[in-house]
Inverse folding.
């Protein structure tokens, strides 16, 4: 290239750079009045103003656009006093937001809103100031959150409750959103409550989510003020969740209640729960001070019936400390009357069935506690093999006839390991030394046929076989002057036999009254039956089941070597007893205008049975005690009455000043040995009149705070005040050979009444007619608000005086946050 040649290459300094546009997309505007200030690069929109930019639309009374600052400002409509009466409506990604003022930076995508109303899932957030950092994160200052449906739908300008926080962060993702707050307080009807949380996380998702569970609060006389059910909920994977609750009392008592649920659809489900705590009563240093540890361990497991029809497993385990219900740290045990429990049982069961074999094998491990005695019964393990009932002979014609073709056989085996022991001896050497093992087999044959068309004749025979590993030896100890029961370790067994025959028929009788009488007829159905039972004397020396010893008084006394064992003892003495039973059913027909047929049946006695027996082989007192049992119902089957009466046919004589009598051989006196009557009567508002059709009677219908009423001409509200009252009464008298019998008599009431469609009062009480004392009594009320419920329970007197106050939110999103209830894998929503 020549030296003086011209260089046509363009210098970098001369490169033309195009300035990037401030907007990434077209901005559309419209309004009734538009004005452009070119020098200031400002656009002003007045009345019915609208701006559309990308996926966002802003509708307001006034909008300004500043091109220098890349800022869009919108304001709602003002009244004559300068108050905003119509909000700014901002719509983005299908979500609608209402604010008084709104500004948006088109470059940074950030926005600031004042008095913004944001709807999320089932709730709405109203914040004094909201800053949008991006499409996913919103920061809010002085914000209220509520799920009040009326407020959300703008049927009311004030929500019935809200949660207030000074700072809230709303995080929005594609699949789920959540609110994160600092301290947050609950307000009811604008009144602040003591319900304050240090923080809260509200995930808007249908999935289970972790969070704090809010307790109920109240006071109990013996342990002080309390928080009951404060805890935390944590889902664990797809099949598990964990809940840990705590009960805290001001006088020092505490209780921890972990609970784990598990579920595998179409297979099984179950729950592990525990109660571990310390009960403190009284003041330390004084005589009434006590401190006791309590525990409860429970496990339930249920297998889906479709999972495996041939092998099923179930568990219902509930083990408590002996005085657990005397020291309840969970107040629910008081309100549910669990404190009256006298025993507790647990069982784990495995059942095996076969496709082609008529056999069912059941294995069980069970544990039973008696709180009165402090003893526990343990069966570990217990196995039962049941063979399905079968006929001994085939039918020749296809229809079974006669005694032979109707013979059925029932048989099975039962293996049991059993021990009764103290709670502190469980699974120690002392317990294993006392454990007994027993094997029993039962074979039962039965048949029946019809005789002379009207009589059913039945025959049966039963054979029992038993083996056990321990027997009893009784003897008199002259050193200590006592009778001694010595358990010996050796294998022994017995076989017993009994047979019976019975004859039964049914008789009908009808008593008709004159035409026009109020009572048209009385119908009587009687079912008499006779039976004869025979079994030999298994106490005779030839069997070897009974032995004799000389007791402390020097009398020769027989006893069974199987006494106090788990396989029972063979019967002593020959039984050749003729038994009878007379069943009765009595009804009457009366005229009734309410019945379409003109008559109505009234049951006088649904059943009235008389039974007893005479033992021909007995050396004394061949007649048994006679039993009479009756059952009936009155007032359209509302009043149920159950009665029982036992009569001793032999005379009982008492020596002067004696409290126990002697049964003589004088027959025919029929003294009352026991009597019991139970009555129950459920009353309700429907029984005392037809339900009023308020829609027809009062055409004016209105609504007050979500409650529907019907108004008469004087503008008085009318509604259905439904109520129920269940009355239960019991009287029991037992005498036996005692000169003075014992009586038990009580009356119980429980019911509820609706003061308004959403106010409900309920309660229950029992009065002891013998001691003249009120027993367990509970009073409660509930208020169903628009978006939450209030429950109050009170036990005013007795051993446990307690009241409990509880607020629960209805919305799924808060149902576990502000209310402790059983969670399940099918329940959506999430707690704080």
């Amino acid at each position: 290239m020549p030296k003086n040649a011209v260089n046509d290459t363009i210098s970098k300094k001369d490169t033309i750079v195009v300035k990037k546009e401030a907007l990434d997309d077209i901005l559309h505007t419209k309004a009734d009045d538009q004005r452009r200030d070119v020098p200031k690069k400002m656009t002003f929109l007045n009345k019915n103003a609208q701006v559309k930019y990308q996926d966002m639309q802003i509708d307001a009374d006034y909008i300004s656009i500043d091109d220098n600052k890349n800022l869009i400002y919108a304001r709602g409509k003002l009244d004559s006093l300068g108050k905003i009466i119509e909000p700014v409506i901002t719509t983005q990604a299908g979500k609608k937001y209402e604010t008084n003022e709104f500004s948006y930076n088109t470059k940074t995508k950030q926005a600031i809103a004042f008095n913004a109303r944001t709807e999320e899932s089932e709730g709405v957030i109203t914040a004094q100031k909201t800053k949008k950092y991006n499409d996913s994160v919103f920061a809010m200052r002085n914000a209220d959150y509520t799920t009040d449906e009326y407020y959300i739908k703008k049927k009311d300008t004030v929500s019935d409750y809200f949660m207030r926080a000074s700072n809230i962060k709303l995080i929005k993702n594609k699949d789920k959103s959540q609110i994160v707050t600092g301290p947050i307080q609950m307000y009811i009807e604008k009144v602040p409550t003591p319900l304050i949380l240090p923080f809260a996380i509200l995930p808007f998702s249908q999935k289970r989510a972790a969070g704090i569970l809010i307790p109920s609060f109240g006071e109990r006389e013996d342990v002080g003020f309390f928080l009951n059910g404060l805890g935390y909920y944590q889902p664990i994977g797809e099949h598990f969740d964990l809940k840990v609750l705590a009960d805290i009392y001001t006088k020092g008592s505490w209780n921890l209640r972990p609970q784990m649920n598990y579920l595998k659809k179409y297979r099984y489900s179950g729950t592990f729960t525990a109660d571990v705590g310390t009960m403190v009563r009284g003041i330390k240093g004084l005589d009434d001070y006590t401190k006791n540890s309590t525990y409860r361990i429970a496990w339930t497991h249920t297998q889906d019936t479709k999972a495996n029809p041939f092998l099923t497993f179930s568990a219902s385990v509930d083990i408590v400390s002996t005085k657990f219900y005397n020291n309840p740290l969970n107040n629910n045990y008081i309100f549910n009357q669990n404190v009256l429990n006298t025993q507790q049982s647990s069982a784990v069961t495995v059942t095996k069935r076969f496709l082609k074999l008529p056999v069912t094998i059941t294995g069980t491990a069970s544990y039973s506690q008696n709180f009165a005695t402090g003893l526990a019964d343990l069966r570990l393990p217990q196995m039962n093999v049941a063979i399905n009932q079968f006929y001994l002979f085939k039918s020749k014609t296809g229809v079974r006839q006669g005694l032979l073709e109707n013979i059925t056989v029932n048989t099975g085996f039962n293996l049991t390991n059993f021990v009764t022991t103290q709670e502190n001896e469980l699974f120690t050497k002392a317990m294993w030394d006392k454990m007994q093992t027993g094997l029993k087999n039962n074979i039962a044959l039965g048949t029946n046929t019809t005789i002379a068309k009207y009589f059913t004749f039945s025959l049966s025979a039963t054979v029992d076989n038993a083996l056990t590993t321990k027997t009893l030896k009784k003897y008199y100890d002259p050193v200590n002057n006592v009778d001694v029961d010595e358990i010996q370790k050796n294998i022994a067994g017995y076989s017993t036999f009994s047979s019976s025959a019975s004859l039964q028929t049914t008789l009908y009788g009808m008593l008709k009254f004159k035409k026009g009488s109020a009572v048209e007829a009385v119908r009587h159905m009687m079912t008499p039956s006779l039976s004869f039972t025979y079994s030999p004397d298994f106490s005779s020396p030839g069997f070897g089941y009974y032995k004799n010893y000389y007791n402390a008084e020097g009398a020769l006394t027989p006893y069974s070597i199987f006494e106090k064992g788990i396989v029972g003892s063979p019967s002593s003495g020959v039984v050749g007893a003729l038994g009878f039973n007379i069943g009765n059913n009595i009804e009457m027909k009366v005229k009734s205008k309410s019945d379409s047929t003109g008559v109505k049946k009234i049951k006088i006695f649904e059943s009235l049975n008389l039974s007893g027996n005479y033992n021909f082989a007995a050396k004394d007192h061949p007649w048994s005690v006679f039993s009479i049992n009756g059952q009936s119902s009155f007032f359209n089957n509302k009043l149920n009455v159950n009665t029982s009466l036992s009569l001793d046919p032999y005379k009982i004589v008492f020596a002067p000043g004696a409290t126990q009598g002697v049964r003589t051989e004088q027959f025919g006196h029929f003294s009352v040995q026991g009597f019991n009557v139970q009555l129950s009567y459920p009353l309700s508002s429907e029984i005392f009149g037809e339900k009023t059709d308020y829609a027809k009677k009062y055409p004016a219908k209105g609504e007050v705070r979500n409650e529907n009423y019907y108004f008469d001409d004087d503008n008085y509200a009318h509604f259905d005040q439904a109520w129920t009252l269940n009355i239960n009464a019991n009287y029991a008298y037992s005498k036996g050979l005692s000169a003075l019998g014992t009586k038990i008599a009580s009356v119980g009431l429980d019911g509820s009444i609706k003061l308004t469609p959403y106010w409900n009062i309920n309660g229950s009480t029992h009065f002891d007619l013998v001691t003249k004392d009120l027993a367990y009594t509970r009073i409660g009320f509930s208020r169903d608000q628009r978006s939450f419920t209030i429950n109050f329970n009170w036990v005013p007197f007795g051993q446990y005086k307690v009241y409990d106050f509880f607020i629960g939110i209805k919305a799924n999103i808060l149902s576990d946050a502000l209310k402790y209830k059983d969670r399940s894998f099918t329940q959506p929503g999430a707690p704080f």
Q: What stands out?
A: The mean pLDDT is 85. The chain has five helices and 51 strands. The radius of gyration is 41 Å. Helices lie at 149-152, 332-335, 402-405, 429-434, 694-697.
